[in-house]
Design a protein that fits this description.
Blueprint (H helix, E strand, L loop, with lengths): L2 E3 L5 E7 L4 E5 L10 H7 L4 E5 L18 H14 L5 E6 L1 H13 L3 E7 L10 H18 L1 H8 L6 H6 L1 H12 L3 H12 L9 H5 L5 E6 L3 H13 L4 E5 L6 H4 L1 H16 L6
Parallel strand pairs: 3-4, 3-5, 5-6, 6-7, 7-8
Antiparallel strand pairs: 1-2, 2-4
Length: 279
């Protein structure tokens, strides 16, 4: 089982497929490296694809304290994966929680990014939603610890921003829920408490975002309302950033519309590799 060690001693499980220019995939809260299967199958024909499980997601380590989880820690884990695999620069693609980590990676380690793709980014970031999102994260952690992941998956998976996938792809949605039910309750709760409930609002980070120099593509689903305004904020703030809005699509864009997602990202990579991407 391939693992690497972060700079604070946490072992992360990863999978690697293909060869060529590297792409690093960073998963969402309700996902893991399996969430990127449609992308790995597509891009590994021409790229070296790496997907890893974040801390708290077995077979990666599950640090026992929420203090081992934070926005900065998730950002630095992206860098740790690149360092451990001796990758100087890569395309970095993140969804939701992973998109926050990708965006923060671009703010601090932008020179290591060939390009950045942030999909479904911004839940809870808007000032009108920020306090409620933090409270919901703490309540979700309590539910997971008290009732287990199967119970949590059955309710969290039915979120209005996710059932759009259920209508389009019932088998894929059922697989998503099965995978979520297998997650560690402790690791998921710690992620909620240490990361989700404490991450800073993007609206307080516009100066840092404005300094992102790597090519950046933002992708949002139009049925995922909490990400629309933050996606527009990023588009307006980051010089040359591109924004794609996918119609009739919710939060899990890469699973719900994999062919369209792959085409958008692949076209963006080509432009970035030719030095024509937006910045």
């Amino acid at each position: 089982m391939p693992t690497l060690t972060t700079d604070d001693g946490v072992k992360l499980y990863y999978e690697e497929t293909g060869s060529g220019t590297p792409i690093l995939f960073v998963h969402e809260f309700a996902g893991d490296c399996r969430s990127w299967e449609p992308q790995v199958r597509h891009f590994s024909r021409r790229y070296r694809c790496i997907a890893y499980n974040a801390r708290g997601y077995p077979p990666s380590d599950v640090p026992p304290s929420p203090d081992s989880y934070s926005q900065q820690r998730e950002r630095d884990d992206v860098r740790s994966v690149l360092d451990a695999l001796k990758i100087e620069r890569a395309h970095v693609v993140g969804l939701s929680m992973g998109a926050f980590a990708t965006l923060h990676f671009g703010m601090v380690y932008g020179a290591r990014a060939l390009s950045l793709v942030t999909a479904g980014v911004g839940s809870g970031a808007h000032k009108d939603e920020y306090a409620r999102f933090q409270a919901d994260s703490r309540a979700n952690a309590k539910t997971m610890l008290e009732h287990g992941m199967a119970h949590f998956a059955a309710s969290y998976g039915e979120n209005p921003t996710r059932v759009t996938m259920k209508a389009k792809d019932p088998r894929g949605f059922a697989e998503f829920q099965r995978n979520l039910a297998e997650h560690s309750a402790q690791g998921s709760a710690n992620t909620m408490l240490g990361y989700q409930a404490r991450r800073p609002s993007l609206y307080d980070l516009t100066a840092e975002m404005a300094r992102i120099s790597a090519p950046l593509l933002v992708i949002a689903g139009d049925e995922d309302p909490s990400t629309i305004e933050p996606s527009l904020l990023i588009k307006r703030t980051v010089p040359g950033a591109a924004l794609a809005v996918v119609p009739k699509t919710g939060h899990m864009i890469n699973l719900e519309e994999p062919a369209l997602f792959n085409r958008l990202v692949e076209d963006f990579f080509h432009q970035a590799e030719l030095g024509r991407a937006f910045n």
